[in-house]
Amino acid sequence: MLTYTTHTLEKLELLLKSAGYRVRYEKGNFKTGACLLLNSKMVVVNKFSGLESKILAISELARGLEMDYNLLDDKQIAFHQQLQQTKLEL
To answer: Are 12 and 55 in contact (CB under 8 A)?
Structure first.
C-alpha cells in the first residue's frame, strides 16, 4: 500500500527518471492525473491534480511499464516490484 506523501511522489518520479522517462507537470484538458505520450518516454502529469491523484496516476503508469532493471538500483527494483504486487492484490 502506498502512502500519499510528497516523499512517495518523489520516489515515483525518481523511479521513472532512472528508467529513462521524463516527468513533466503541465496543465491540460485531460481528466486523469497523468498520461504517457506514445513511444516518447515522457509522462505528463496534470499539475492541478491533488497529491493523491498524482501518486495514483503515476503508480498506475509505472506498474504497466517494462523497465530495464540494469538502469535501476536495488531499492528502485524492489519498489517497482512492490508496485506490481499491489496491482495483483487489487
So the answer is: yes
3-state secondary structure labels for all residues of 10-55: HHHHHHHHHCCCEEEEECCCCCCCEEEECCCCEEEEECCCCHHHHH
Backbone phi, psi, residue 62, to 5°: -65, -35
Q: pTM for the whole thing?
A: 0.85
| Cell output for 83 | 508496485
**6-89 in CATH: which number?**
3.30.2010
90 pLDDT exceeds 80?
no
Return the domain boundaries, the chain.
6-89
Burial zone of 77 (CB within 10 Å; 0-12 exposed, 13-18 middle, 19+ buried): middle
Q: Which of 5, 53, 4 is nearest to 25 (CA)?
A: 53
